[in-house]
Amino acid sequence: MGNTGPAELLAIWEAGLAHHGPGRALLLHRAARPETAADELLSLPVGEREADLYALRRALFGERMQIRAECGACGEAMEFDLDARDLGVRPGEQEGPLRVEEGEWTVEFRLPTVADLEAAAQAAAAAGGHVAAKADADAKVDVGVGVDVDVNADVGVDADGNVGVGADSGAYGDAASDSHGGEAEREPTAAARARRALLARCIVSAHRSGQPVPVDRLPAAELPEPVQRRLAEAAERADPAADVTLKVACPECGEATRAELDIASYLWAELDHWARDLLLDVHLLATAYGWSEPQILALSPLRRRYYLELCADG
Asked: Cβ neighbours of residue 16 under 8 Å, at least 6 residues apart?
């Protein structure tokens, strides 16, 4: 972890205002690993980035995460506290590609990298003529890698400052939903297109009935659903932190809702809230005492709060 003092964090926040999801995620990742070049960060497995962002989040804002989600069954707003100490498990070292054998198929593939996610999301958006609000997150979900966290939403917290999580759009292992029970396939969703683009990038080799299938000629849609499920299971075991999915029990109707915890979006929302609050503090103290921004940022949070209280009392 590099120098992440108030001035440095404000610089990261300011730079991030000109970017969206992937660009902001890269800025946050560079804050977690300042000694690593951007190209190297993009080549890391997704779970490695997520682990770095969870570590950065713990260093900046602590272990507890306030979450807000919506029940998929009744629409009830659910707010709860999450202990994130067990999240962000780093992937183990892989010796060569992962291998899946299912039916007549044998497929070798590598874990998706951050660059793979961005490329898959862009390919899906180009194919569909539009981009989803969370294309990068959709691509991540559809890799099918991740861990499930059971959450009891009865432990509600105040909504102020809570950060929401996105609804889970279906895992890579749920590809059967795209086939519509054997009927002619309808127009694939953005998530399905992202999944297929990701598969196409990450498959190293494929054999069918012992015969090699050229990877550059293998549409991801040609892989049977059981093969895609096995790929998802193998990826999940190898890189569990790449997709954290919450299972939230609704306190109103009792139904469970699955929601994706996108740590990059969550951490950016927290940083944005923190930065705007800090700039307000700077404004108030500069107005009251005539201090410069660097002088105010050099104060500890406790001393800044004390001076703000004095301003309010005066």
From this structure: 23, 24, 27, 28, 268, 271, 272
**Quick one: residue 211, left, alpha or beta (phi over 0 = left, psi -120 to 50 = alpha)?**
beta
Q: Helix or strand or coil: residue 245?
A: strand
Report the C-alpha gap between 77 and 84 in whole angstroms: 21
Using CB atoms within 10 Å of the CB of residue 92, give its burial: 0 to 12 exposed, 13 to 18 middle, 19+ buried: exposed
Tens digit of each residue's pLDDT, the chain (314 residues): 556 799 999 999 999 999 999 999 999 999 999 999 999 999 999 999 999 999 999 999 999 999 888 898 999 999 888 887 878 878 777 778 999 999 999 999 999 999 998 998 888 777 765 433 343 433 343 333 344 555 554 333 333 444 455 543 333 334 333 433 333 344 567 777 788 888 888 999 999 999 999 887 777 668 888 998 899 889 888 988 888 888 888 989 989 988 888 999 999 999 999 999 999 999 999 999 999 999 999 999 999 999 999 998 86
Q: What does the DSSP 8-state code read for residue 78?
A: E
Total number of residues shown for the chain:
314
The torsion angle over the Cα atoms of residues 181, 184, 189 and 193, rounded to 10 degrees, is: 110
| Cα separations in angstroms, 254 against 71, 248, 249 | 9, 9, 6
DSSP state of 155: S
Cα–Cα distance, 136 to 119 (Å, whole number): 9
What is the distance between the alpha carbons of residues 45 and 240, in angstroms, rounded to a whole number?
11
Token output for 254: 């009792």
Three-class SS state of 150: strand
Q: Is 31 exposed, middle or buried (0-12, 13-18, 19+ CB in 10 A)?
A: buried
- Phi and psi at 45, nearest 5°, equal -55, 150
What does the alpha-carbon distance between residue 44 and residue 122 come to, in Å, rounded to a whole number? 19
